[in-house]
């Protein structure tokens, strides 16, 4: 394979159309091995909290391992024992798998969606590989694997029916949603509320006291960043999640800290505009949007009645805003 430096405009990767039959089989073996490991990782991640869904991914991993075994047998019969170390990242335009840690952190539903995408990509690969194969036995094998990948959705659904009792899938989905809310939504919402509301008074007090947009921006920036750091460390340190079931303290700390900072920056950034009244009007509009976003999140994810959420957030925010303007204008 010719090597080309990245800045020359040429790629050191091979084109799929240039792969030999031996290389296609080697690529298929490596791909099936990686997919099997991904399914096994999902199963291991879910085993403690979602044993039935873990069993589904165990079935998928076993299916991928069987495909790998058949491919290796065909490879050895045709090309010998040494398998070329060719992987997805060595081929231009070939599909890549998302990092396991990223998918795991997003929950059960996201894992299921990723499996559907993986199956579709594998099917497309085998269809294209079948067209290029000239050896009759290998062409048959690749065609059979393409058909198997096309049926994997059915395999997954059958496995769900086998491992999940009536109502158990709904129970697992509910538990997954609850974990997502506890780990990400709840601390993120708390941070957004704190950042949006608690910074209103100092930002608008500074704005109306000085009518200096740059000074107001610096106060808003420092208040937002400081509050974000404080909220993030507080959330991460006060509960390790083992007893409360709220999940990783690091994830909760990140959610709380980032959303706190964004909540304050939303109405601080307009003061980068030199015109005081233009910046203030835009900041007030952003405050309105922030408060209604908080109401929407509370209603959707925390199941807080809409009118109650509106009363708590909008009225509270309006009072803090008014206090800041009155103090600044005094």
Molecular structure report:
This protein has helices spanning 21-46, 51-79, 100-105, 108-132, 136-150, 152-163, 168-198, 200-210, 213-238, 249-266, 276-301, 306-329. Helix 7 packs antiparallel against helix 11 (276-301) and helix 8 (200-210) runs parallel beside helix 12 (306-329). The chain starts with 20 loop residues before the first helix and ends with a helix. By secondary structure, the protein is mainly alpha-helical. It contains twelve helices and no strands. 75% of the residues lie in helices and 0% in strands.
Question: What's the SSE blueprint?
Answer:
Elements: H1 21-46, H2 51-79, H3 100-105, H4 108-132, H5 136-150, H6 152-163, H7 168-198, H8 200-210, H9 213-238, H10 249-266, H11 276-301, H12 306-329
Helix pairs in contact: 1-2, 1-4, 2-5, 2-6, 4-5, 7-9, 7-10, 7-11, 7-12, 8-9, 8-12, 9-10, 11-12
Structural class: mainly alpha
Number of strands: 0
Query: Can you tell me the CATH topology of the largest domain?
Result: Ferritin
Per DSSP, the total helix count is 12
Q: Uncertain segments of ≥5 residues (pLDDT<50)?
A: 1-10
Percentage of residues in helical conformation? over 70%
Report the CATH C-level class of the largest domain.
Mainly Alpha
């Amino acid at each position: 394979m010719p090597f080309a430096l990245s800045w020359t405009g040429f790629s050191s990767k091979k084109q799929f159309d240039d792969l030999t039959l031996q290389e296609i089989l080697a690529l298929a073996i490596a791909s099936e091995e990686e997919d099997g490991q991904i399914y096994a990782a999902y199963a291991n991640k879910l085993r403690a909290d979602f044993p039935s869904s873990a069993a589904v991914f165990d079935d998928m991993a076993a299916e991928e391992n069987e495909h790998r075994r058949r491919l290796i047998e065909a490879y050895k019969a045709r090309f010998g024992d040494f398998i070329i170390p060719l992987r997805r990242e060595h081929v231009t335009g070939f599909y890549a798998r998302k990092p396991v840690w990223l998918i795991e952190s997003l929950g059960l539903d996201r894992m299921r969606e990723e499996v559907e995408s993986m199956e579709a990509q594998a099917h497309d690969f085998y269809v294209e590989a079948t067209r290029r194969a000239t050896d009759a036995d290998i062409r048959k094998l690749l065609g059979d694997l393409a058909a198997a990948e096309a049926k994997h959705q059915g395999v997954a659904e059958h496995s769900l029916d086998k491992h999940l009792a009536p109502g158990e899938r709904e129970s697992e989905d509910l538990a997954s949603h609850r974990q997502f809310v506890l780990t990400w939504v709840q601390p993120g919402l708390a941070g957004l509320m704190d950042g949006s509301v608690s910074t209103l008074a100092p930002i608008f007090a500074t704005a109306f006291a000085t009518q200096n947009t740059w000074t107001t921006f610096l106060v808003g920036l420092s208040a937002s960043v400081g509050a974000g750091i404080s909220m993030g460390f507080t959330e991460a340190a006060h509960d390790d999640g083992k007893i409360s079931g709220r999940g990783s303290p690091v994830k909760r700390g990140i959610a709380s800290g980032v959303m706190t900072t964004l909540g304050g920056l939303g109405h601080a950034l307009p003061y980068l505009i030199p015109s005081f009244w233009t910046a203030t009007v835009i900041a007030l509009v952003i405050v309105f949007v922030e408060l209604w976003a908080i109401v929407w999140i509370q209603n959707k994810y925390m199941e807080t009645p809409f009118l109650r959420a509106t009363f708590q957030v909008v009225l509270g925010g309006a009072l803090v805003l008014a206090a800041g303007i009155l103090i600044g204008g005094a």
